[in-house]
Hints:
The structure holds 2 protein chains of 2 kinds.
Chain A: H1 2-8, H2 33-65, H3 69-93, E1 97-99, H4 108-112, E2 130-132, H5 133-138, H6 142-151, H7 158-175, H8 185-207, H9 215-231, H10 235-245, H11 251-268, H12 272-279, H13 298-302, E3 331-333, H14 334-343, E4 348-352, E5 361-366, H15 367-380, E6 388-390, H16 394-404
Antiparallel strand pairs in A: 1-2, 3-6, 4-5
Helix pairs in contact in A: 2-9, 2-11, 2-12, 3-7, 6-8, 7-8, 8-9, 9-11, 10-11
Chain B: H1 2-16, H2 24-38, H3 42-48, H4 52-55, H5 60-79, H6 82-93, H7 99-122, H8 127-159
Helix pairs in contact in B: 1-2, 2-5, 2-8, 5-6, 5-7, 5-8, 6-7, 7-8
Amino acid sequence: MNLWKIAFDPKASFGGLISFGPASEHPYKVWETPLFLLCGLIGGVFGALFNELNSKINHFRRDHMNGKPILKILEVLAIVMVTTLFQFWLPSWFETCQHIPSKWNTTQQASALGENPDRFYVSYRCNETDYNDMATTTFAGADTIIRGFFHNDGYYHLGGLVVYFVVTFIVSNATYGISVPSGLFVPCILMGCSFGRFYGEILRYYVLPNGGIVPGTYALMGAVGMLGGVSRMTISLSVILMETTQNVQFLLPIMMILLISKWVGDLFNISLYDLHVEIQCMPFVEASPPLGMENMVAVQVASGVVRGHSNQEEGGGSLGGISHVRAVNRQMTVQSLLHLLATSVHGGYPVVLGKDQNYRMVGFLLRNRLVTILNAILVKGTTNNKVLFVFFLCDEEEKEVGELF
Amino acid sequence: MKTLVVKLVGVIFSVCAGLIIGKEGPMVHSGAVLGANISHLPGLARFFGRPRWLMRFRNDRDKRDFVSGGTAAGVAAAFGAPVGGVLFALEEAASHWSISLTWMVFFCSMIGKYTCLYCLLGHTVDVCLCSLAAIGVEELTLCFVCCFVVALHKKQVHFH
């Protein structure tokens, strides 16, 4: 059934939620490659800027808006309102009418785009044969806008593109991280498209008027640069983009741009995904340690220099030389454990033997685990504070608690 | 599973509202959620109990592998890029990678893309639901494939 459909349906090559339309008929020329690389450079810089601002905004959100649902809903409403206002008013503020290229109504390329060939041209208040370039970039779904950037042979007004880029940059920066599920690809592609298209239009009309420049290609390259600058992916992004554009010709420049934008972006900060992992305080081990940690020794890490905590008090069975680490013995009273928990903030405590055995470490007790066990015991209420509490290693520990009940 | 439902409903509304956001990220996430859940089936287990053949996936390693597969299928369904999905899982999602995982994940993305294509050709169902169905079908397939592989492996061990 499906095979039959694919065999007879001309649109069968369409797949996925996002599609950039049919492959461009104008592959780039080899001498354009260095020009593409500039897209990677710009994309890397803007991507790093985006990451920086977004992580600032989300740090603020985490610190001040966590656990306040009403505030979150208000925030979403405010952002929706701002987005809608911009999308509604921008076309009339920056109104320039451009001619719709006539070949779109006749040639085969038009039919390749679907039943309605000029559907990404929005006339707005212009004549029917014209289109408003700003309305074309705001009055449509994201897919259509992107396809317009890539395949529209007409002219986008330069000032309009700059305004569109700035607005999209600010709004999407504020949007990524609000309490709705949101992805990163489309905003990045929109931003990248607008500056890539800007660059392409300048090249086409002012720098190399006879060079046969296709600004749509530059829009694609700008999108690649922006994606690379924000997400810092290399292999997977190049393959995804190649499969989405359905054009193998672009693979080489895409790879080069991704590398350039990754290098440029890495000069400033890490990728947005890693930044968000950091913001959410998730335990995540990087492939390489953060800057400055390579020269640390275990004492510094364990004593809380990293997390900015220092705890001088001597508790249960603390080690002699290193007063910052709080250790527990194999036998402790519930009271001293409670005291230990109350006076320290460590995530875990090493279990050590006595002094005669040179404080040999025999295990590690996580704070979480300790709290759970103590809760279970105290809720039962069967113990007074003098009961001995014996720790064994890992699996036996659970057995022991079971026996206490 | 709750995350999944909220995510899907949320993304449909927020994309319709015209916010400048992508619908691909949530798709990838849904894939990962499905992957993490399908090896445990917490919802179904309440009613039907846990079948024995599912029990052997209840460990961290298999859970990680399922999440990788789900992520790859999510990318494959969202962008129509099966190979890109595999590489995405390799580059961003998975922290451990093995040779056998490569083809399993590749199989996932293939099925994901195929199901997505099949749904989209009809143009009758919502696009988001399509991708979800794609990911779901792919996960189930992955499950069976893994079963098959594990069974084969055990047989070999038995022979030895």
